[in-house]
């Protein structure tokens, strides 16, 4: 919306319903759904019930339970005899190994889990125009280019979310998952190495560098290659960029490995230990098998008059508004089809 407020979308939809005389009942938790011949009975926790010839299940998935998405729709569909595709969180944060201080090896890592020193150094950094590759069992599975965010959850942002579906599914299946970050996506390793050597030469010739130690010169070099705030985590992750040569008991020579810096910029590897669960996942993957429904109407092939739509179904998409579009499109189709079926009777 023009206001950039999600609440305005809700208000618009509610006002539209009110305009058509739709009755919205709140604080009415559903206990069960029963089917008898051509009628559906929705039983509430307080014992009251609603009976209708057409019923639409639009409960959403398991993502963001604080909004009321408890996953009840899956239970009702299962009780009615529908085949389910296993569900898992998608478009969620991937947690690199060592990013959080964990007490167990669970794949689901709560967002509130404390960050490690390395994780704290990365948290809050936003990277623009970088490359990200997903490897499953050391096989390149997906490659993305765009923006990446390091958050209190882990790897997020557009391209972090984009690879999360395959990554989470692979982790659940017991596969080894890692991602490779390319900070200089549009430059080849050879070109980057040459450029780094040129910059190092310029720093070496600068009179202001005469009294600087090698590590201080390195910091200047890295500052010309990446955001300043990324330098601490980068150096922690890549100790190979510095070599210490012990010349005597009291003397140590520091060597900066320019080729190693170039390689690290092009291929910063992160082993993925787990993922943030439904509490912050954008969407739930899996759900009710779509083959049991007519795509043109969203009506069940098994129970005439029953419709399902949105995240409850086994339909999910990439980040970028596509999941909202799926929800609106299938919801509109289900509502229109249900209304037409009632008018025909």
Give the SSE string: HEEEEHEEHEEEHEHHHEEHEEEH
CATH arch. level architecture of the largest domain: 3-Layer(bba) Sandwich
- The percentage helix is 25-40%
* Gyration radius, in Å: 27 Å
- What is the CATH topology descriptor of the largest domain? FAD/NAD(P)-binding domain
Number of strands: 15
The SS-based structural class is: alpha+beta
Strand content: 25-35%
Structure description:
With 345 residues, this protein is an alpha+beta fold. It folds into 3 domains: 142 residues, 3-Layer(bba) Sandwich (FAD/NAD(P)-binding domain); 103 residues, Elongation Factor Tu (Ef-tu), domain 3 (Beta Barrel), CATH 2.40.30; 77 residues, no CATH class. Helices cover 32% and strands 26% of the residues. It has a 6-stranded antiparallel β-sheet with strand order 6-13-10-7-8-9. Helix 5 packs across helix 6 and helix 5 crosses helix 8. The longest helix is centred in the C-terminal third of the chain and has 22 residues. The chain is elongated. The mean pLDDT is 93.
């Amino acid at each position: 919306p023009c206001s950039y407020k999600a609440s305005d979308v809700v208000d618009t939809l509610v006002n539209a319903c009110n305009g058509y005389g739709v009755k919205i009942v709140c604080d009415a938790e559903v206990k069960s759904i029963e089917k008898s011949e051509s009628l559906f009975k929705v039983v509430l926790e307080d014992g009251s019930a609603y009976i209708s010839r057409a019923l639409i299940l639009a409960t959403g998935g398991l993502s963001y339970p604080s909004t009321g998405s408890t996953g009840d729709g899956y239970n009702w569909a299962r009780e009615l005899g529908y085949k389910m595709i296993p569900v898992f969180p998608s478009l969620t944060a991937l947690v690199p190994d060592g990013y959080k201080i964990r007490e167990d090896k669970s794949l689901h890592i709560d967002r509130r889990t404390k960050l490690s020193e390395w994780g704290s150094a990365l948290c809050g950094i936003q990277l623009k125009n970088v490359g990200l590759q997903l490897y499953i069992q050391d096989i390149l599975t997906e490659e993305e280019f765009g923006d990446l965010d390091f958050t209190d959850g882990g790897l997020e942002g557009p391209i972090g979310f984009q690879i999360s579906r395959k990554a989470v599914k692979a982790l659940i299946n017991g596969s080894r998952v890692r991602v490779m970050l390319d900070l200089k996506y549009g430059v080849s390793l050879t070109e980057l190495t040459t450029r780094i050597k040129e910059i190092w030469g310029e720093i070496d010739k600068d009179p202001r560098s005469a009294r600087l130690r090698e590590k201080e010169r390195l910091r200047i070099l890295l500052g010309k290659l990446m955001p300043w705030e990324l330098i601490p985590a980068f150096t922690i992750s890549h100790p190979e960029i510095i070599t210490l040569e012990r010349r005597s008991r009291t003397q140590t020579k520091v060597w900066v490995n320019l080729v190693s810096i170039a390689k690290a910029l092009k291929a910063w590897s992160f082993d993925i230990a787990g993922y943030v669960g439904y509490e912050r996942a954008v969407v739930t993957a899996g759900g009710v098998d779509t083959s049991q429904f007519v795509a043109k109407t969203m009506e069940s092939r098994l129970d005439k008059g029953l419709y399902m739509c949105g995240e409850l179904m086994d339909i999910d998409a990439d980040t970028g508004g596509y999941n909202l579009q799926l929800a609106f499109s299938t919801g509109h189709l289900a509502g229109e089809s249900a209304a037409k079926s009632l008018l025909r009777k």
